[in-house]
Amino acid sequence: MSMPDAGPEDLIRPITKPSRNYFILGAIATVAVVIFVAAYTIQLINGLAVTNLSDWGSGGGVTWGTYIGTFIWWVGIAHGGIIISAAVRLLKIEKYEPVARIAELLTIGALSMAGLMIVVHLGRPDRVVWSVVKAYPTTVHTSPLAWDLTVITLYFVLTATYLSLTLRSDIYRLRDRLPDVLDPLYSALLFRYDPDEDPVVERMAWWLALAIIILAPLLLHGGVIPWLFSLTASTPGWFGGLTAPQFLSAALTSAMGGVLLVALVFRKIYTNWENVIPDEVIWGLGWWMGIFSLIFVWLQLQRTLTGSYLAPTGVGKVANATLANPVYWTAMLLIIVPLAYVAFQHFGILEFSLRGMAVAAFAVILGVLIEKTLFTVEGLLYPATRLYGNVPGSYVPTPIELASILGTTGLLILFFMLVSKLIPIVELQAIEHEAEEGGD
Length: 440
Prior knowledge:
The protein has helices spanning 8-16, 20-46, 66-90, 100-122, 127-133, 136-139, 144-174, 183-189, 198-218, 220-230, 243-269, 273-276, 279-308, 313-323, 326-346, 354-381, 399-419, 428-439. By secondary structure, the protein is mainly α. Helix 11 runs antiparallel to helix 16 (354-381) and helix 15 runs antiparallel to helix 16.
């Protein structure tokens, strides 16, 4: 017996009728956040010494590690997420409309986690005020930290504006079905709303999407963030022209995996959401995840090949160390195996599987996280300077640092769970277009 077509009641079900799985997922995420809070409390009490960071040179350590690697990872997911949404709106790809708002929410949540990682890495929260906010006018031209915060803030404002513009029409049309207890929130969102503004809003959203598509590859995750690394000649593992394309491909790969995972979770939790987010959308996201994974792997090949074959001493040292590191090959396998899986599905060698797509997406996201952390660390382990001699360096993430990954992931899950209780996370026009296609 086939399921009925998706309707407005399916979009508001997460708001009005949370399922049992909703509370189970919330409990797991809460435990992850508690672990993170406990670990961060230990760091606040004892200082960054508990992470073994800030011990560079003769101490054989590094100043940046999992915190900065995780920051790059979250920023990449955020930038990739909004690129997905902007592409859907700019190119009017109706097939992927059901995940456009999910991508926008993923961007806001991931950017928030990236900002939190900066705070955690600084050691004490008050340093955000004294080292960043107060000194911003004099450091914005030279400080990588100021650049990071500027980029994050810019993207956050763009995405929040983008989301609010497209949300007002849905709230207005679904108002009678939404909980009365949330009327103050909906009244604020609908401040001075007029249905006649919808065509204007659509044009504004199109121009915002165009701005995002231009900014992301040229200035943000294809620009400022990788420039902070690739323009540092004293670190051969960072320096070079391939860094920006690698960052952008990694961002799009992990963002596709993130949107895919979120979509699958909501399909699992709520009934009839297989019609809200149909299989063809999941299959398409997996295919694009495979395409961007292929680009990422190809760029890795270029980097390792040029770095290991008759390269300058510093570059060759880093490249050979990377190739000899089993952690690097673990990260590559976590990306290559899902890439092969998606390709086999596309060519009919393997059957389409939702569970298989979920595992593939998780593996790709984890692989990008490991690679970005290793990229950060190895740039510092093999600097092109004799200031500290030839002291061998090493780095192993501490449980305190690993808890930050667990905690920020838990916070992102709780963010989605909270937002899903307040607003529809799939646009109304998405299911209307699906209904029209079904009727045709």
